[in-house]
Specification:
Elements lengths: L2 E4 L6 H10 L1 E4 L23 E7 L11 E9 L8 E7 L7 H10 L7 E8 L6 E9 L1 H4 L5 E10 L2 E2 L3 E2 L2 E9 L5 E8 L11 H7 L5 H9 L5 E4 L2 H7 L7 H12 L4 E3 L7 H6 L38 H5 L8 E2 L7 H11 L4 E5 L10 E4 L2 E6 L1 H10 L5 H19 L4 E5 L8 H11 L6 H6 L3 E2 L9 H19 L7 H14 L6 H19 L2 E3 L5 E3 L3 E10 L5 E9 L4 E3 L2 E6 L3 E11 L3 E11 L5 E13 L2 H35 L1
Parallel strand pairs: 12-13, 12-19, 13-14, 15-16, 16-18, 17-20, 22-29
Antiparallel strand pairs: 1-7, 2-3, 3-4, 4-7, 5-6, 5-8, 8-11, 9-10, 17-18, 21-23, 23-27, 24-26, 24-28, 25-27, 28-29
Helix pairs in contact: 2-12, 5-13, 11-12, 12-13, 15-16, 15-17
Length: 676
């Protein structure tokens, strides 16, 4: 049976979506993971002008043994010339692929061990420039032969077609077909995280962008709606929305309301998606606490409701726990990095209680244990690492043909995983660039309705052992960051509200040890944290004093205190002369204004005539904590100049008086002589 349809025709949307979701599609010119393009030995192609071949086959990436195969072969012509009519053929290798490695080899470079045979051949129509057509072909059970359960290599061939000038296009495209008597049961866990530019909480502008109709968070929620996916949410997202109060963008408030109304199981990650494994390896007896966010609230954002007949209502400012909470979310699940040891599981029990469940990839455990395992009495939900990796890569794609190709590879890997366990659990990687279209399609293709978190935890658990080795780099870095945080705890005593500095810094530490950070990103984040702490510690200091000449016995000595923090600070200026010839006020309380330099006049007086004196200045908090580095002012004393100057002035006046008196007497004598 043959059917031709233009790609841009009026084919019903439902059929196209079903075809894409259910099919295993391979694009001839671009294959996932760097696979080679479809062959066209007789025609040179360019990226801007080429002919592409793709094949989509199977229903739900699976047919039952003895079933019929309906395939769709797509021919796309982006050249400026018409593509002539020809023929397409569908071939299958009756030898099933041996496993995951063989599947990857087939999709990557076309390596297969068996001999392909044709199961369907159809004529292909002309394809106009910039157009594409779909050729439908049917292979019944007699064409397919007796295919046992397994994963089979499939390829489509295009031949006998040319463009202007007789350029021939002989193309091939690869795919797979899964033959299985029963449908697999698949649970999918999808993490939702969002990292702000500041490293603390998402700003109002960032939330507005993320929850706009085309925003990342909106796209993720749209893709998850009406699916059975298990959702893992970073509580920093709802906290960022609620901390803004009435200033929160309406789109963000609506997004959070939609999330809380979903019937899906929701798992709460740690704040900032912080890694529990890193904390356990660093010797933390409890999980790093979420900082107190209430000092960050603006009272104006939480107006008190109008009085009611029953009394005066209380203010509506929320608590820290209510800021980050999500209704009915599971808080007894940890999804850490994979380098978990047996002792870490015991530590996790101390963190969240003995009923805690840990999500780990299959590579962390020895052998095939299925989706639920038990290690030394601790419950483990096991995600299939291979399938999770393939679906995570597919979820990043935006091109429909590449999305379908990713689904094809995942379908084969799911088949092999399902041989060891009737239920396969998939955990997508943390990602903030996930494609909503790809996410929706892979969930529609694989996520099995009815797979709940409770049913996974209640299923029989296989006894297992961990095969991981604890990482040492991240725990060491965390210990260093916590030491820096302690330095800030003492330093922040110069603030009226230390939490204004400490709460954002704790959030930054939590985000630095986030599960989703790569080793390179982690190293950069740790370096940034150290530089930021040092910048804060150096933000309040004494501006280098200039040399001072004191020509009187007493005068104010000007000192400038620099404050680069966005908050006013209260410090004490300690002053001490190097010699007792100078008296100076030892302690001066200073309120240094935010983002500025404040002048402080310190009274001084000289005890003796003159000399060189160095005055040592240092800043401390009101509790005596040293702040920044000391400074030294050089003071030149000329205190006796005042007495000398007065004496000289008095002598000059006396001399002038005497000279005036003599002059007057002489003038009178001259007048008397003249009169005589």
């Amino acid at each position: 049976m043959t059917a031709f349809s233009p790609r841009e025709g009026l084919r019903p949307r439902a059929r196209r979506l079903l075809s894409r979701l259910a099919a295993v599609l391979v694009v001839g010119s671009v294959l996932l993971g760097g696979a080679s393009p479809a062959s066209a030995a007789d025609a040179p192609k360019t990226e801007s002008a080429t002919v592409e071949l793709a094949v989509s086959t199977g229903t739900g990436a699976r047919i039952a043994p003895g079933g019929s195969l309906v395939s769709t072969i797509t021919i796309s012509n982006t050249t400026p010339d018409e593509l002539s009519a020809g023929s397409v053929a569908l071939e299958i290798d009756p030898t099933p692929l041996a496993g995951d490695a063989a599947l990857d080899a087939w999709l990557a470079d076309g390596t297969a061990t068996g001999v392909f045979r044709s199961v369907a051949t159809e004529p292909s129509p002309k394809v106009g420039p910039g157009d594409s057509v779909e050729v439908s072909a049917l292979a019944d059970s007699s064409d397919l032969g007796d295919l046992s359960a397994g994963v089979y290599a499939v390829k489509a061939l295009l031949s006998g077609v040319t463009t202007e000038g007789g350029v021939a296009w002989n193309l091939s495209a690869r795919s797979v077909l899964v033959v299985s008597p029963t449908a697999r049961t698949v649970g999918v866990v999808v993490p939702i995280t969002a990292t702000p530019a500041s490293g603390t909480l998402l700003s109002a502008d960032e939330l507005a962008d993320l929850t706009a109709p085309d925003g990342m968070l909106t796209g993720q929620l749209d893709a998850l709606t009406d699916t059975p996916a298990i959702i893992a949410v970073d509580p920093a997202i709802p906290a960022a929305i609620r901390v803004l109060g009435i200033r929160a963008p309406q789109s963000a408030v609506a997004w959070l309301t939609r999330l809380e109304r979903l019937p899906n199981d929701i798992v709460m990650l740690q704040f900032g998606d912080a890694d529990a494994t890193t904390q356990a390896h660093a010797g933390q007896k409890t999980l790093l606490a979420t900082p107190d966010l209430t000092p960050l609230l603006d009272a104006a954002d939480f107006p008190t409701p109008a009085p009611t007949p029953t009394g005066t209502p209380s203010p509506t400012a929320p608590s820290t726990s209510s800021l980050s909470a999500i209704n009915s979310a599971n808080t007894d699940v940890l999804w850490p990095r994979s380098d978990v040891t047996a002792s870490d599981l015991a530590t996790f029990g101390g963190y969240l209680g003995d009923a805690v469940t840990t999500i780990l990839p299959s590579t962390s455990l020895q052998g095939a244990v299925g989706s639920h395992a038990e290690v030394d009495g601790h419950s483990i939900l096991v995600t299939d690492a291979d399938v999770s990796s393939h679906l995570s890569q597919t979820a990043q794609l935006t091109d429909p043909t590449r999305i379908d190709l990713g689904i094809a590879g995942a379908a084969g890997h799911l088949y092999f995983a399902s041989q060891a366990s009737p239920t396969v659990l998939v955990g997508l990687n943390r990602s903030e660039t996930r494609s909503p279209v790809a996410l929706r399609e892979l969930l529609s293709a694989f996520a099995t309705p009815g797979v709940r978190l409770s049913s996974l935890k209640a299923s029989p658990a296989a006894s297992a052992a961990l095969v991981t080795t604890a990482d040492t780099v991240r725990p060491t870095a965390l210990t260093s960051m916590l030491a820096g945080e302690q330095r800030l705890v003492t330093f922040s005593s110069i603030l009226d509200t230390p939490a204004l500095m400490l709460a954002p810094e704790r959030i930054r530490i939590l985000r630095t040890i986030a599960v989703g950070l790569s080793d390179k990103q982690f190293a950069t984040a740790v370096s940034d944290r150290a530089a930021h702490v040092q910048k804060l510690l150096n933000s309040v200091s004494i501006q280098r004093p200039k040399p001072v000449q004191l020509i009187t016995s007493a005068a104010p000595l000007p000192v400038w205190v620099r404050n680069e923090l966005p908050w006013d600070v209260h410090v004490v200026l300690n002053s001490e002369p190097s010699q007792p010839r100078l008296d100076i006020q030892p302690l001066t309380t200073v309120e240094a204004l935010a983002d500025g330099t404040t002048r402080v006049d310190v009274p001084i007086s000289a005890r003796v005539a003159s000399g060189e004196v160095k005055v040592h200045f240092r800043l401390t908090s009101a509790t005596g904590v040293p702040i920044s580095q000391p400074a030294v002012a050089e003071v030149t004393l000329r205190a006796d100049w005042e007495g000398i100057g007065l004496g000289i002035l008095g002598g000059v006046i006396a001399l002038l008086f005497v000279l005036g008196l003599i002059r007057t007497v002489r003038r009178r004598r001259r007048k008397a002589d003249a009169a005589g």
